[in-house]
Amino acid sequence: MGSGWRGILGFDYGIVQAPLGPDISGPELAAAVANAGAIGIIRLPDFPAPDYVRELIRKTRSLTSRPFGAAIVLPFPYEENLRVVLEEKLAVLQVYWGEFPREWVQEAHRAGVKVLHQVGSLEEATKAKEAGVDGIIVQGREAGGHVIGQEGLIPLLPRVVDLVSNSGIPVIAAGGIVDGRGYVAALALGAQGVCLGTRFLATEESYAHPIYKEKVIEMSRTDYTNVFGRARWSYAPQRVLETPFYSGCKNLPDQETEENQPIIGHSIIHGVHKDIHRFAGIAPNPTATGDIDSMVMYAGQSVGLITEIIPAGEVVRRLVAEAKDVIRERLSDFQ
Q1: 262 & 117 share domain
Q2: Which residue from 17, 332, 18, 16 is spatially nearest to 192, judged by alpha carbons?
Q3: Residue 242 neighbours by CB distance under 10 Å
Q4: Could you list the residue range(s) of the whole structural domain that residue 36 is in?
Q5: Residue 9 lies in a domain
Q6: Which of 89, 190, 231, 272 falls between 20 and 30 A from 14, CA-CA?
Q7: CB–CB of 89/58 below 8 Å?
Q8: What residues contact residue 169 under an 8 Å CB cut-off, 6+ apart?
Q9: What is the CA radius of gyration of the chain?
Q10: Does the residue 219 lie in any domain?
Q11: Do 105 and 178 sit in the same domain of this protein?
Q12: pLDDT for 36-71, tens place per residue?
């Protein structure tokens, strides 16, 4: 098994770095992942900012000569930002939380951009297949951040694999995967790659606040909730760390939103100054000030397996090496 082991979509490895919001997967992280031969993805703003998006792309290109991608969240205005992605001819466009019509997929293909659609159900996967996407990321309920589906990865993943088995569309597993064991488990279920969010959050290059990174290393419990960001995105439940702050307010009444809560800090998100209200869905980046411990901290269920902050390239290298070891040392007797 050489450097091309389990590569997908023209990349060396079948490893995708999930887009971490709101701007935690910036140029430094995406470039580091790309330089290691995996698929690095910058998270684009949830508001129209074409000039800023072009700057993000060009800054990433200054840090890597390898291909990389960008991600948009479909419920928010995205057409202006998407146009820049196509004009800049990025390798990959990742879309999430909604339908991405065949017309847009075809336009991306005309620009030479491959489309990855992240889904949380068989129904969504069916629509993505019909739209002609180049890859489908199957997100299980174990995943951190905003989680669209209700099914666990193990029951959902093979169903999607079977659905697209005659199409040649690679399926990528997401949710609770942080090491080579999870990589091999996903391959056994029929996936051709894996997508990791929380593991890449806890890297040197991620744009997460140092306190946020420390919590990911220290803590092992998460919860699935709708406490954060209700006013801005009311139908988007999320998986978060069970921090002391969250544990004390997880039963927040449904009528309460961040809009009627006090400001607990400030941050600069994609170049825009933001007031952070209590229960806002804004995870802290290094510009965040104020009560960091009371801000939302997204993380997946396997957070307890992450024990150190390492370079993103090392994450890629370890995943491949560990997966090879699992296959060679633990599964060879089954051959």
Answers
A1: no
A2: 16
A3: 17
A4: 15-206+308-334
A5: no
A6: 89
A7: no
A8: 129, 133, 134, 135, 136
A9: 19
A10: yes
A11: yes
A12: 999 999 999 999 999 999 999 999 999 999 999 999
Place of tokens 């989680």: 147
Instruction: Please count the structural domains in the chain.
Output: 2
Nearest to 36 by CA among 270, 257, 311: 311
Pair (96, 156) in one structural domain:
yes
Alpha carbon dihedral 134, 106, 80, 41, in 10-degree steps, equals: 10
Q: What is the pLDDT of residues 79-110, one digit of tens each?
A: 999 999 999 999 999 999 999 999 999 999 99
| Strand intervals (E) in the chain | 15-17, 41-43, 69-73, 92-96, 114-119, 135-139, 145-146, 171-174, 193-196, 222-225, 238-241, 263-269, 272-277, 289-290
Residues 286 and 312: their CA atoms lie apart, in Å, by 18
Note whether 232 and 95 are same-domain residues: no
pLDDT at 334: 63
Burial class (CB in 10 A: 0-12, 13-18, 19+), 197: buried
CB-CB contact of 289 with 266 (8 Å): yes
Whether residues 196 and 292 fall in one domain: no
